[in-house]
């Protein structure tokens, strides 16, 4: 991506906070290009009942980077991803994606904004084949009309063909060709998680949000998944926001690591910086959260 890692001080690439807000229900305000930041969450707060899941959190993610979000259970990691992906609306704060700034990111426009995601819990169509699951990732990009789809002609058929071609390409890339006709629900868990990644990548998103893509995997499966995530960034220049509990994997894979604790961001820097950070060490090793553990179930 031509991004010089570590060469620019954080202040210089922090996303400008004075971007105009996206006007309602239109194409939004175009901003000067560059902004190496592809996503910036500004001053995000969100509560659920009495629980403050996020308090005044900023996150700036540079294009082409793998930016991890780590933190103890309940720290607010998924909430932050869900605000960036438009699933949650923050009580306060805004999210900027590729030069457009939103109070609530419009989920129906995510594909057009070049954003795709996976979920913390598997969200595959268990009864469909791997190929069909991956094809569904393209649906939101399709433009054929309802009628064209019904009669199965012309544009609809071309779109289906191109969706299948794109699905087969990403299936090959993620080394899933051997299982492409298998029913997804019958495959080992680690493979199913990879199918989910394939579905997210089939539309060639500029940004992909991965909520614990390695959770519940064996050590070997995690290493494989980490390699695929890295290959995705290296091959397609995809920006990746990754939530992961396995610190070893995170430190080996990420360009930057943001650390949440009790809904606040307590650190954000290179893996080396974050590992040395006293607040991070305290959050993980110091005062334990009641009844919580950072041990992976696997
Ligand atoms: N949709 C929701 N409804 C109610 N409470 C929620 C919701 N989403 C998150 N929360 C609460 O917000 C807090 C942060 O949750 P979140 O899922 O963001 O944490 P997390 O860091 O992803 O945790 P984990 O590592 O366990 O996945 C928790 O107290 C959680 O119960
Ligand atoms: Mg979570």
Tags for this model:
Rossmann fold; disordered C terminus; alpha/beta; globular; 10 helices; six-stranded mixed beta sheet; 21% strand; four-stranded antiparallel beta sheet; binds adenosine-5'-triphosphate; 298 residues; disordered N terminus; binds magnesium ion
How far apart the termini lie comes to 35 Å
How many separate helices? 10
Q: What is the alpha-carbon Rg in Å?
A: 19 Å
Architecture per CATH nomenclature, i.e. the level-2 architecture of the domain at 1-114 and 239-298: 3-Layer(aba) Sandwich
Shape field = globular
**Count of strand segments:** 10
The CATH superfamily of the domain at 1-114 and 239-298 appears as P-loop containing nucleotide triphosphate hydrolases
CATH structural fold name of the domain at 1-114 and 239-298: Rossmann fold
- The string of secondary-structure elements, in order, is HEEEHEEEHHHHEHEHEEHH
Percent helix, as a range, is: 25-40%
Point out poorly predicted stretches.
Answer: 1-17, 23-34, 288-298
Main-sheet strand order equals 6-7-8-3-9-10
Beta-strand percentage range: 15-25%
Ligand species: adenosine-5'-triphosphate, magnesium ion
What is the C-level CATH assignment of the domain at 1-114 and 239-298?
Alpha Beta
Q: Output mean pLDDT.
A: 83
Largest sheet: 6 strands, mixed
**Oligomeric state:** single chain
By secondary-structure content and strand pairing, the structural class works out as alpha/beta
């Amino acid at each position: 991506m031509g991004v010089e890692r570590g060469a620019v001080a954080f202040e210089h690439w922090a996303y400008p906070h004075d971007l105009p807000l996206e006007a309602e229900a239109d194409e939004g305000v175009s901003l000067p290009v560059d902004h190496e930041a592809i996503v910036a969450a500004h001053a995000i707060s969100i509560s659920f009942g009495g629980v403050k899941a996020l308090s005044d959190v900023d996150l700036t993610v540079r294009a082409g980077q793998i930016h991890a979000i780590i933190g103890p259970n309940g720290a607010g990691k998924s909430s932050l991803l869900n605000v960036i992906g438009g699933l949650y609306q923050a009580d306060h704060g805004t999210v900027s994606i590729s030069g457009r700034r939103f109070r609530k990111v419009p989920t129906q426009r995510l594909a057009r904004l070049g954003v795709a995601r996976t979920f913390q819990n598997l969200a595959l169509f268990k009864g469909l084949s791997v190929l069909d699951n991956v094809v569904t990732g393209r649906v939101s990009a399709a433009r054929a009309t309802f009628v064209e789809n019904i009669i199965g002609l012309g544009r609809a058929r071309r779109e289906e063909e191109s969706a299948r071609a794109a699905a087969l390409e990403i299936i090959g890339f993620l080394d899933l060709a051997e299982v492409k006709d298998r029913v997804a629900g019958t495959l080992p868990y680690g493979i199913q998680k990879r199918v989910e990644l394939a579905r997210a990548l089939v539309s060639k998103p500029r940004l992909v949000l991965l909520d614990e893509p390695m959770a519940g995997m064996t050590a070997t499966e995690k290493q494989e998944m980490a390699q695929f995530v890295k290959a995705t960034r290296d091959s397609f220049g995809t920006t990746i926001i990754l939530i992961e509990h396995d610190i070893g994997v995170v430190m080996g894979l990420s360009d930057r690591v943001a650390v949440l604790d009790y809904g606040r961001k307590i650190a954000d820097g290179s893996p080396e910086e974050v590992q040395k950070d006293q607040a991070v060490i305290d959050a993980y090793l110091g005062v334990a959260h009641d009844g919580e553990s950072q041990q992976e179930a696997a």
